[in-house]
Write a structure and sequence with these properties.
mainly alpha, 10 helices, single chain
């Protein structure tokens, strides 16, 4: 399609110029100076066309990057839910030798390839911001792997495992905050905080719609989850940095987190545990 557009543009220029030539002087085309002028006109048009195409491609690429950011924000909110649910199910009966199944950790991982720094190589400031987000996502993935390795190792002390849970929980809000900062740098005239709330609300609504059988929810973990979230207003970046200006909005987010984590602690429509806990016998028993 692009080649066809370019061909049509050139044909149109030649046709219009030939029309002018035909209706002025018979020897116009063969005049050296005028021929150079004609050639310059065509080249100028091609340059404008090339710039126009580059501008539109750049605009499309940036819109794609924005959509990828939106999906990361959704993924991070879901990661927070899963992290809290894993911790609640792990901590409810600490006497048991158990751990959340590996896949729950591995599903937390993000794709650093979703950050397309190459689209912003002409803008050093934006490029550096994106590059930093890329590194933060890679570090987060490393922390997920470390937490999993600690969790499946019975010799690692509980203190280290609780520290891992704290880190993974904290990083969801922190990374969301950093991503919103980069989005503000690239698209300064948009309300990205409001968009983030809409993304979270949509995720919550979809969860309620697909998991509408409340008898399958993990209500037995409600008190444990409440204890784990006791100081989130003071420590969690979702409340401390992102949604810190509207008390009603904070209350709505707290309620969404409460219900989403209770759902995650329960069972799916097939009555299978959404967060599966692997148990093993104590070797010294």
């Amino acid at each position: 399609m692009e080649n066809e557009e370019l061909t049509n543009l050139v044909d149109s220029l030649i046709h219009n110029t030939s029309y002018i030539v035909k209706n002025t002087t018979a020897d116009f085309v063969w005049d050296g100076v005028c021929f150079i002028g004609l050639l310059s006109l065509v080249l100028s048009a091609l340059t404008v066309y090339s710039i126009w195409k580059e501008f539109n491609n750049d605009r499309i690429d940036r819109e794609c990057q924005k959509l990828l950011f939106h999906d990361i924000i959704r993924h991070l909110y879901r990661n927070k839910i899963c992290t809290l649910a894993m911790r609640a199910k792990y901590c409810k009966e600490p006497s048991l030798r158990k751990y959340p199944s590996d896949e729950h950790y591995l599903k937390l991982k993000l794709l650093p390839s979703d950050i397309h720094t190459e689209q912003f190589y002409k803008d050093a400031k934006k490029f550096d911001c994106l590059h930093e987000i890329d590194l933060l996502l890679r570090n987060y993935n490393t922390e997920i792997e470390v937490a999993l390795n600690h969790m499946v190792n019975s010799t690692v002390p509980e203190e280290a495992k609780m520290r891992d849970f704290d880190t993974l929980d904290f990083k969801t809000g922190y990374l969301t905050h950093r991503i919103l900062g980069v989005m503000k740098e690239i698209w300064p005239n948009e309300d990205h905080r409001k968009k983030a709330m809409n993304i979270i609300s949509e995720s919550h609504s979809k969860n309620l719609e697909t998991q509408n059988n409340q008898t399958l929810w993990g209500w037995e973990f409600e008190d444990t989850l409440k204890s784990l979230r006791e100081n989130e207003i003071k420590n969690d970046f979702y409340f401390l940095k992102i949604f810190n200006e509207d008390e009603i909005e904070q209350q709505q987010l707290q309620e969404m987190l409460k219900l989403d984590t209770i759902i995650e602690c329960g069972k799916n429509q097939k009555k299978e545990e959404k967060i599966y806990i692997i148990k093993w016998e104590d070797a010294n028993a």
